[in-house]
Design goal:
Chain lengths: ~280, ~250
């Protein structure tokens, strides 16, 4: 009898240990699986959006309503942030340029940095906050209160009616908002230049645009479309896949903003790399 | 389009065989079989959380069963593609337990939404007439231009019922049509359900906890328990039953 004791002990130890190990591996495996299924889910979502976009019966009315919601309703916010962006950038850069005796470069420098980087990225981040969270919350609450199911049973494809219209409207409207922010930024910059000095409107704009080239504007416009698409897709994805309780509406809105902002920055980095290689 | 007149009254419009549905570890429906015959109203009873809503969501394809067959108008729901499913859903009215009114639309737009999408050949006048008619039916003609957030819980329920019947479906699935309503309105809704059955020759499944409503509206009652059909029969069979579970509902 005594002889069996250590065997049992070792066996017990081994089992306990292996259970611990397998639990750990399982958790890791599950996390990896979750990430992969999430990624696959997003890919599937994007494929569905693309397929539904090109199917007949496009929901024009809802699309125009969304363009109005996303574009027009964001104008006040973008006007304020855009013009302050230009104003602040001018005030901050002025002393440095004065030191170098290059103050005549001020309009050109501000215009180029607004058009290339500040305008698109800051406007996109603001839109991620306003539009991304709005979509997440709206679709999330429609999901939780079964409104999406109700659409589905009244022969309306909610993917086409709700998601495609919103994603397309964001993809189209956000670049326009960005161009608008650029323009107001330059206007704000002119105001900033006039705080300490006297530059005529015409002279300022001539100086500004003599430094802006096609290859400053073109890549910025292209990346703006991607910002718009990212914000639309993330907002809709998070809202459309919200859970079942009311708290998931908040989660959807919040995670939409976080993910959309993060992706805007990442897309920007990639876009800058590509532009840099091309020029 | 197919008409219910063409189906004999002893033929089933919905036939469910061995339906099984679970969510993760939780087995909700284990083995449910039932038939809904043409022109008939059946009431489905059962404790809260037993899977009544899940059952009718499976019928319209909002949830996919794990096993078993659901045949609606001789079509197997699981085998339909998106377009065919859409066509089938046009013949089925679904009253959501929560109402599911579109918050961003007025009552009028809520009612017009399914009407414009399912009955595409109606003129503007006909749409307006139809909307007013169903609103009269549920006794809320003056709510036309209100937003859902301005309505009381019972009013939302009735508007949502109006939105379901506005397209004259051939099968109606009511998920707790009278829950949360006062006795007078409950009775009105019950008579409305019978009226819809007679006028449009619909067949209905009525999920309810309200025994009075079940007695008034149903030709047959089905009781669910533990994921299966516990008892099925006429109202009288249930009234006289001495089974404790059934008694707790009917006494
Ligand atoms: N989409 C879903 N995902 C996960 N679980 C679900 C889902 N739908 C329903 N359930 C679960 O299935 C069970 C049955 O839900 P169901 O809504 O059908 O109950 P019910 O019989 O309609 O109850 P009640 O009378 O309260 O409405 C519940 O435990 C619920 O948590
Ligand atoms: Mg229910």
């Amino acid at each position: 009898m005594k002889k069996f004791h250590p065997v049992i002990k070792v066996k017990g130890f081994a089992t306990k240990h292996s259970i611990k190990l397998s639990e750990k591996t399982l958790a890791k495996k599950e996390a990896a699986d979750n990430f992969l299924t999430d990624l696959a889910d997003v890919m599937l979502f994007i494929t569905r959006i693309i397929r539904e976009t090109f199917s007949p019966n496009f929901e024009f009315k809802e699309f125009f309503r969304q363009c109005f919601q996303i574009g027009y309703k964001s104008l006040p916010l973008i006007s304020i942030t855009g013009s302050i962006m230009g104003l602040v950038l001018t005030i901050q850069s002025r002393p440095v340029l004065v030191n170098f005796g290059a103050v005549t470069l001020l309009p050109g420098m501000v215009a180029v940095s607004l058009i290339r980087e500040m305008g698109p990225v800051i406007t996109a981040l603001i839109c991620a906050g306003k539009i991304g969270s709005g979509m997440g919350a709206e679709l999330g609450s429609m999901k939780v209160t079964e409104q999406i199911d109700a659409m589905e049973v009244s022969s309306t494809n909610p993917m086409r009616f709700l998601v495609v219209t919103r994603v397309l409207a964001a993809t189209l409207m956000i670049p326009l908002l960005i161009l608008y922010a650029d323009a107001l930024g330059i206007l704000g910059s002119w105001a900033g230049a006039n705080l300490k000095g006297d530059v005529s409107f015409v002279l300022f704009f001539n100086q500004a645009f003599s430094h802006v080239h096609f290859m400053d504007l073109f890549p910025a416009v292209i990346k703006s479309f991607f910002f718009g698409a990212v914000i639309g897709v993330v907002g809709c994805y998070k809202g459309y896949n919200a859970g079942r309780g009311t708290e998931s509406v908040g989660v959807a809105a919040n995670s939409a903003v976080v993910l959309a902002s993060l992706l805007v920055i990442i897309v920007d980095m990639i876009a800058v790399q590509i532009t840099d290689m091309l020029i | 389009m197919m008409n219910t007149d063409q189906i004999k009254s002893n033929e089933p419009v919905i036939e469910i065989n061995g339906l099984k549905k679970s969510f993760g570890q939780q087995e909700v429906l284990i083995n449910v079989s039932l038939k809904l015959f043409n022109g008939e109203n059946i009431a489905v009873l059962g404790k809260s959380g037993i899977g009544k809503s899940v059952l009718i969501q499976c019928i319209v394809g909002l949830l996919t069963p794990d096993d078993g067959a659901i045949i609606v108008f001789d079509k197997n729901v699981a085998s339909l593609n998106r377009k065919e499913l859409g066509e089938l859903r046009q013949k089925i009215g679904f009253l959501f337990q929560s109402g599911a009114l579109y918050d961003s639309m007025t009552v009028k737009q809520n009612l017009e939404f399914p009407l414009r999408r399912i009955k595409k050949n109606l003129t503007e006048n006909e749409i307006e007439e139809k909307v007013n008619e169903v609103l009269e039916n549920v006794g809320l003609a003056d709510a036309l231009n209100k937003m859902p957030s301005q309505l009381s819980g019972g009013m939302r329920k009735r508007i949502s019922l109006a939105r379901t019947i506005v397209v004259d479906p051939m099968i109606m699935l009511y998920d707790e049509p009278t829950t949360g309503l006062d006795p007078v309105t409950s009775d009105e809704i019950s008579s409305l359900i019978i009226e819809v059955q007679k006028k449009y020759k619909t067949s209905s499944i009525i999920i309810t906890h309200d025994i009075k409503c079940a007695r008034n509206t149903a030709n047959r009652i089905i009781m669910l328990s533990e994921g299966e059909v516990y008892k099925e029969g006429k109202v009288a069979d249930f009234n006289n039953s001495t089974d404790p579970l059934i008694e707790s509902f009917f006494k």
